[in-house]
Amino acid sequence: MATYVIDTPKTVALPVQGTDALFPVRRVYCIGRNYAAHAIEMGHDPDREPPFFFQKNPDNLDPSGEFPYPPHSEDVHHEAEVFVALKSGGTNIPIENALDHVYGYGLSLDMTRRDLQGQMKKMGRPWEIGKAFERSAPCGPVIPVEETGHPDRGALTLTVNGEVRQEGDLNQMIWKVPEMISYLSEYFELAAGDIIQTGTPSGVGPVVRGDVMVMSVDGLGSLTVKVV
What is the model's pTM? Predict the structure, then answer.
């Protein structure tokens, strides 16, 4: 039996709707600018250019319902997204087989230190300081695909203190879920436990302490997160 020189890190796991069993998380991939209107609001051409991805850390996922406002930023934005949870993976997965690897779906927020991300963009540096900070991905439970099917349409909204900020539809994704899985598998070996955040519609904006964000997606329920 292996021994370790330090205590082994805790396995990151998400609740699964309808069971006490947990979904263990291996990696978190996030696609950028996957809704045309959001690409435009961020100053980019929404034409179907090749997708790009960045990563958050597994322990950035947080189902607690609270989002602690992070240090070193005065401009933290919400980005409401659906995530995909994989039960298997591989390399060079054909698009037509991609959905066979999906365990379920859920709701999440890609919280972003926009000011720090902007600084990194100007200097041509990686985004992790703006994207992969502690508890930067509030999320709900994983909902098994047996309950949801494979949602490819449905209204997505996010309100802050009751005011609608983000509105879109899953059918507005530039790159669909099977395409994302297939494309990622060309560059990474996907595996059970991987999470893919599928992008956000337009309307991203700042939050402050005390704000209450409510995200909802047709067929996937809602997620409420308070900024603390």
Answer: 0.94
